[in-house]
Amino acid sequence: MTRMTQPAPLDQDNPDIVLGVDTHKDVHVAAVVTAAGVFVESRSFPTTAEGYEQ
Q1: Which of 18, 38, 42, 54 ranks highest by number of CB atoms within 10 Å?
Q2: How do the pLDDT tens digits run along the chain, 54 residues long?
Q3: Which pTM does this prediction carry?
Q4: 3-class DSSP state of 42
Q5: What DSSP element (H or E) covers 22?
């Protein structure tokens, strides 16, 4: 399931961000949130040679 939301602009006064990666057999999903928990962006990558290169 892919969730599409509008990315939030980063706060230039507080640029602390957190990256989380959820790994699966066929796809890895990376999500970025601010230190305050505000969603910034997420992307998914297939577990193929091309996906790992991305």
Answers
A1: 42
A2: 445 455 556 556 656 889 999 999 999 999 999 888 889 999 999 999 999 898
A3: 0.66
A4: strand
A5: strand 17-23
Q: How far apart are the first and last CA of the chain?
A: 20
Q: Cα 33 to the chain's mean position, in Å?
A: 8
- Asked whether 24 and 1 are in contact (CB, 8 A), the reply is no
Tokens 């290169």: give the residue.
53
Q: Which residues pair with 8 in a beta bridge?
A: none
CA distances from 22 to 7, 9, 13, 54 (A): 19, 23, 28, 16
Residue keyed to tokens 């602009």: 9
